[in-house]
Amino acid sequence: MKLKDIALNNLRRRKIKMFFLVFGMVFGVATIVTLSAITATMQKEMQGNILEVGTRLIITPKTEERNYSYNGIAIPGSDVNFDVTEFNDGVVAKIQDSDGINVVAPKVLGAAKVQSSKRSRDVAVIVGVDFEKELQIKNYWRLVGDKPATEDQVLIGSNIGMEFKVEPGKKLTINGRDFVISGVIESTASDEDGLVFMNLATAQELLKKPDALSFLEVAAFKNLRATDEQVKAVVQQVSVKVPEARVTSVKDKVEARKELVDRFANFSLVVSVIVLIIGSLIVMTTMMSSVNERTREIGIFRAIGFRKKHIIKIILMEAGVVSVISGIVGFIVGMGVATLTAPMVVGNLKGSVAWNPLLAVGVLVLSTLVGLLASWYPAVKASRLDPAEALRFI
Amino acid sequence: MNIIEVRNVTKTYDGGEGLVTALGGVNLKVEEGEFLALVGPSGSGKSTLLSILGAINPPTNGEVIIDDINIYELSSERRADFRSEYLGFVFQQFQLIPYLTAIENVMLPLAITNRSTTEQREMAKAVLEKVGLGNKCERLPNQLSGGEQERVAIARAIVNHPPILFADEPTGALDTKTGQEIMDLFKTLNKEGQTIIMVTHNMDCLSYTGRAVFIRDGLLEKTEEYRKKVI
Ligand SMILES: Nc1ncnc2c1ncn2[C@@H]1O[C@H](COP(=O)(O)OP(=O)(O)O)[C@@H](O)[C@H]1O
Ligand SMILES: [Mg+2]
To answer: Which residue out of B23, B51, B99 would a mutagenesis test of the A interface target, given it has the greatest number of A Cβ atoms within 10 Å?
Structure first.
């Protein structure tokens, strides 16, 4: 028999007490694992959205008239008029050529009369897009149904779907022409929910705006979160090539989302720290009461010649075993809970919660460390028990 | 040859209500192979003296020499080693570890030696057989009778072959017949050469021992007459 056998036997034969300790620690570990796995999933998901296409820019035609003035007095002959409301098709190639540009998604906007078998509306916004490009940029879209394969198919926002009581496969008549709905975009909680997307050329024809583009959405710097400098450089380049363009970088949903994710990450961290502190206290009080309960036993160990370090070893081994078990079970439970709850918390989850071996190792080390550190004081206290005193009241 | 020599040992406890003198100047010599009884009423200082002899309770004054070692000059960890090497304890109320089986309890003193588990098991088995419990090795303490638990406690105390065996009221919790069996066991061990020092307040036990030392209010009484009477 070795010291570890003494420790193991004690654990084995005091199952209920140990069960509660393990249960408490599993709860703590699982909480930490769940939070960190969900945080990681959110971050990955967000990174994915940003990085897959790169930094998003919007290029619109300059519409305002600009006069140079001095003290409010217009300088004669100085009006530089870019009264352009629409680009023409040629601009796409020019912009596509610039450095760092990844995807250029041209769009034409217009109003049209939309009818389904159930409803009709005189003015609805139609967006003509290059679906291949559009879907690359809108990588956060989730479709019910499919993307359009032919010119006669359209994608609709979720509000349109609800308003016109249509679903994929149903017919929609737009400005008198029949289209089939190939898919519905799940709500993105933005204007997109109320739009009808169709093939660019078809839209140009339908809206009677041949060759015209209302604006371009551009993704620059694939796989990179662009710095302000880089964005400026692109803006510069584009302005030179297409003087009539105005470039703005999109502080869009991704930005808002990042803020949310960052806040959730901070919240997780705070909760984890609190859980760690509470967990340590639970381990410490449990080990302390276990030591107090075992006063006599420890007195016997000491009387028959166990050294202080032997006592410390026995108690720390018990704590170690409990912590390792709790770490493993807690990790599995935590990942289970994360997997189950991630779709709710993250929303629009495309991937799944990743089983990160680093997290597993980290959590195991952490729970073992907490278990050992929190048991250190009880163990030392036990080792200092006076055997004569411990054996006195018997 | 004296294996134990106690010189002017006093022990004062600082209890809640002032100082309590448990031992007031004890001198005692114990020869190797002796079976000595410490006899006295409750509160007379028997357990205190035994714990001082047993190297777990430093005296207030005086010294204890065992096998030429002044045991309270050792550091506390060295004294633990000393106990492991020299002393066996049979505590009051057996004091078995409840979550260890009989044989595991007996192996306990060996757990801190570097003997292999197999060797430990063989040694434990041998002493359990010697105390008549060879067939109950795997039982937990609460599955054993009082007499059986006492035997396990004795087996645990002697498994290491310590030069000195201490027992505090070993028959205190047992019925008369079982108590006699236990005393027989001690006597057998003593005949094999085991030095035994036993605390008791049961006069019937004295017929098994070689010598009795009477203790009253922390002081030893003369013992010569009793020795003659027994012999
Ligand atoms: N740790 C202690 N603290 C205070 N007083 C003690 C302590 N141990 C023993 N005593 C006192 O010392 C005296 C002798 O006790 P003890 O040696 O246990 O006697 P016995 O074993 O003969 O009954 C008693 O009065 C007891 O109350
Ligand atoms: Mg006593």
So the answer is: B99
